[in-house]
UniProtKB/TrEMBL annotation:
Keyword presence, Iron-sulfur: no
Protein keywords: Cytoplasm, Hydrolase, One-carbon metabolism
Similarity field: Belongs to the MCH family.
Gene name for this UniProt entry: mch
The name this protein goes by in its record: Methenyltetrahydromethanopterin cyclohydrolase
Domain of life of the organism encoding this protein: Bacteria
Organism name: Methylophilus glucosoxydans
Reaction(s) the record says it catalyses: 5,10-methenyl-5,6,7,8-tetrahydromethanopterin + H2O = N(5)-formyl-5,6,7,8-tetrahydromethanopterin + H(+)
Length: 331
């Protein structure tokens, strides 16, 4: 049973002045201008698009990953690195907050735009999604953006072919030379960090899946340990998921009744899923690497608290699992 029945957010709560294109533009400019220092490299694609390699032919790095995570959030998020002694072997953690959590996480950061051509496939996240409107989630959150330039972050170890860039250009209505593509393979430090920085977004996405009233979400905070990347795609991808599933914590501030807040807290943690209990790489292999065979309720933080600003009560659920975290990160 879901905590509520509505996903929509009224137009009054999504001011047109909140533009993920505008807020992210200075961050993209910073990444491009300081690419060499950040362990990235910038090039111009044959289509005219700007390509930022953050881990394919270059090492990438923590600061690059932190900055890219803020770009993914449309400039509405604050991403920081902290030493947190919650887990003995993995003290480096990423801390995430957002000025407008629903827009930042679901309207920008969520990797929901599937792009493919022949042997190329990648999920796109970032501000360009809000212009293209290719996903149903934008109807649910009632958010649309526009701009004269935009950026898309791709989790890939390949430069996108011209056909993919031309599709993004067509769907956004922007010429290719006004588009920037940031490439972040999970095997890079930057890629591993920017995926782990989705801890708050994962919680918001599960709220959406649970049909919780997103307009009741006032604010949020997330934290998760940062894993080392792996040259093995499945291992690396598994670690970034496990960082959130077994070590992630999210606090949501909501404005609703206590019954809805408590129901949300109970359903949010990863341990509420039938597929919980093994490192994600094992779960992934067990279903022949078919994401659609995995319980979608698994993708959520290990531990949550839901604070109801209307009544002052906070509801807690979930648990950290350091043993599974060690098993995943140390493999």
């Amino acid at each position: 049973m879901s905590a509520s029945t509505s996903n929509s957010i009224s137009t009054n709560e999504q001011p047109s002045s909140i533009s993920v294109q505008r807020y992210s533009a200075p961050l993209v400019a910073e990444l491009v201008a300081n690419a060499a220092a950040l362990g990235c490299v910038v090039s111009t694609h044959e289509t005219g698009a700007t390509i930022v390699d953050a881990g394919i032919q270059v090492p990438g790095g923590l600061e690059a990953g932190r900055l890219i995570a803020e770009i993914c959030m449309g400039g509405l998020g604050n991403v920081a690195l902290r030493h947190v002694p919650q887990f003995a072997n993995w003290p480096l953690s990423v801390v995430v907050t957002a000025k407008q959590p629903v827009i930042a996480c679901l309207g920008s950061q969520y990797a929901g735009w599937a792009l493919s051509h022949e042997k190329f496939f990648s999920l796109g996240s970032g501000p360009a999604r809000a212009i293209a409107q290719r996903e149903e989630v934008f109807k649910d959150i009632n958010y649309r953006d526009q701009g004269e330039q935009s950026v898309l972050v791709l989790e890939t170890d390949k430069v996108p072919p011209a056909a993919v860039i031309e599709k993004v250009s067509k769907d956004t209505g922007l010429p290719a030379n006004k588009l920037t593509f940031i490439l972040t393979p999970t095997r890079s430090v930057a890629g591993s960090l920017q995926v782990t920085a989705r801890v708050l977004e994962v919680a918001l996405h599960k709220c959406h899946a649970l049909h919780f009233d997103l307009s009741a979400i006032v604010d949020g905070y997330g934290i998760a340990p940062v894993p080392a990347p792996s040259p093995d795609f499945i291992v690396g991808m598994g670690r970034t998921n496990d960082a959130i599933l077994f070590g992630g914590f999210v606090q949501l501030f909501v404005n609703t009744d206590d019954a809805a807040a408590e129901a949300l807290a109970t359903q949010l943690p990863s341990s509420a899923s039938k597929d919980y209990g093994r490192p994600f790489a094992e779960v992934f292999k067990a279903v022949n690497m078919d994401f659609y065979q995995i319980d979608p309720m698994l993708f959520s933080p290990a531990k949550v608290s839901v604070s109801n600003v209307k009544t002052g009560r906070t509801f807690f659920a979930g648990k950290f699992n350091e043993d599974l975290l060690n098993q995943s990160f140390g493999s």
